[in-house]
Amino acid sequence: MPSQHLVTHGAILGMTDSGKTGLLMVLIEEALQAGVPVLMLNVKGDLSNLALAFVGHAPAPFVP
Question: What share of the chain is helix, strand, coil (3-state, %, to 5)?
Answer without folding.
Answer: 45, 0, 55
